[in-house]
Amino acid sequence: MKNALGYNNSYQFLLGVCSFLLCFSPKLVPVGLLLVFIGGIIGLINGKAKIVAPNKLMLAFIVLYLAYVIGYLFTNNPPVGLKYLEYKLSFVLIPLLFFIRPKEGITLFSVTVGLIGAILLTTAISLVEGIQCYNEIDYFLECFTSSYLTNEHPTYFAVFLTLSMALSWYGWKNGFRFFTTYLVVLFNLIAMMMLVLGLSLSGISFALLVIGIMVLIIINKRFGKWAALSTFLAAPLVLIFLFFSVPSLKSDISSSLSSFTKFAEDPDKFLEFDGTHNGDDVRLIMWTVTAKEIADHPMGVGTGNVDYHLSDRLRRYHQTDMARQDDRGQILYNPHNQYLQTGLEIGIIGMIILLFIVGFGIVKGCRTKNWLLLLLASCLAYNCLFESMLQRQSGIVFFTFWLVILSIYSLKNEHTKISNEHE
After folding, report:
1. For 325, which DSSP code?
2. 89 in a domain, yes or no?
3. Is residue 167 part of a domain?
4. 103, 295, 336, 377 - which has most CB atoms within 10 Å?
5. pLDDT at 416 exceeding the cut of 50
């Protein structure tokens, strides 16, 4: 029993190392995954691990990767196509990794500590660098906000923060060691500060949406449906006040409304304007040209061919600056929407597989009351509307790792004596 417990703890620790690296040092994640694989093999040899059939989510990730492999057969840009296949290899490797699991099951203590530890260390480094920057240039926004805050993209980091906050409360509820009320509240205050400083509109809006839903549920339970309904109706006013009370967010919202208004008035004129564009203009243009390309290529243009087709379409609308390609044939802007990106690259079938992945996570989360899985799947579904979340390797590895973990971890084992002793 002690040997089994010792192996299980060691395996969970390796998962925690992976969780830490996902946020703090993505380039080292392959090392962490390799260690977990070796740990699984050792467990099989010693009889402390077993081979487990994959669930539908794991299979869907593998099928999605195979769709990209098939798309590569039609590529006109092999180097870029191979780069995408390399980035997306985690769609296969991570599910395969969890075909082998400890007989005692996978719990969330180590991976939770790993992610929270990475968040805290990243925050400390970011604040130290921000202070040094501020001492040199005396400009707060360029030292403590948005992409200047961390090395990670603000929207991706917002996802890390959102999941880490949810996990901290999960740890508190389940009595994880060190997860006292004081420490959990303190961590959430730090995480919310970083979330606001990141200035990711989609990240902040999703977090507020989740908080709003939780507040409505609590109000409904304690004060009834009429109080919950009144709160729901008043919520938009509160959100408007919160967003417009932060100058940078107010500017972002005003810019978004202005861009959408101009686009709605005359889409063709908007697309053909070759002057200066802000971020929202770029998104509207890229969404539109990508949708037009999908209409012309419903089966996809092939892995690695997206940049060429988007560049060609942009030139037709005289968007010469946005259409520029580097020496590798890549353009500056991606579609800023993962559904459109996937649909253009590997077709409607690929888009359906992606929708199945997020849909499976949401439905399974609701049916089994696995709120962590529901949260992360919803977070992916929401953010994919505004960013190509599965184009960067950090996003690919993070979402695949955590969605698989949250779809297979043992809800029962979190409350066993063995798990508590480990925690």
Report:
1. B
2. yes
3. no
4. 377
5. no
